[in-house]
Write a structure and sequence with these properties.
It is a single chain. By secondary structure, the protein is mainly β. The protein has one domain: Jelly Rolls (Sandwich), CATH 2.60.120. It contains two helices and twelve strands. The radius of gyration is 16 Å and the shape is globular. The two termini are about 25 Å apart. Bound molecules: thymidine-5'-diphosphate.
Length: about 150
Amino acid sequence: MNGRNLVLNLHKMSNKPYIIDFGKIGSTENGFISIAHLQNTPFHIQRVYWTYNTPDGVVRGHHAHKKLHQMIFAVHGNITMHIENEHGVMYKFNLNTPASGLYIPPRHWRTIEMSNNAVLLCLASEEYNEDDYIRNYDDFKRIRSIN
Ligand code: TYD
């Protein structure tokens, strides 16, 4: 097992959402750049998508994933992520800097509130697959009893 796989496995074992600070290069005079790559991301990135122009008051998400790992950034604006794990533990994260991302492991229900100027960027570990979604909350609560 190489070092990266060891880190990957440790992240999977923790099975908790957490913020990763990706750091930034630059200056207030010139602006900044932040970089996500193999060494600082706890999964192989297969897909990138972004969400934007979400009207105030709209709550997105309302689902969990069976196998997907994700890293969520507020590249602009403010995003509040409400996360619940399969045991009912709740987390709340406020994303308001493009230098930090929220890692979400599989099997975590999320609801997403965004300021209407927010741009949510997601790095995902798999291609899009609707079969990977758990969109019914009662089904999500049942996964504990079948695993
Ligand atoms: P969804 O993941 O439910 O968005 P959110 O969590 O922000 O509410 O996706 C919204 C719609 O977009 C849904 O019909 C599926 C579709 N979609 C794709 O076709 N491909 C993708 O990669 C993603 C992320 C969504």
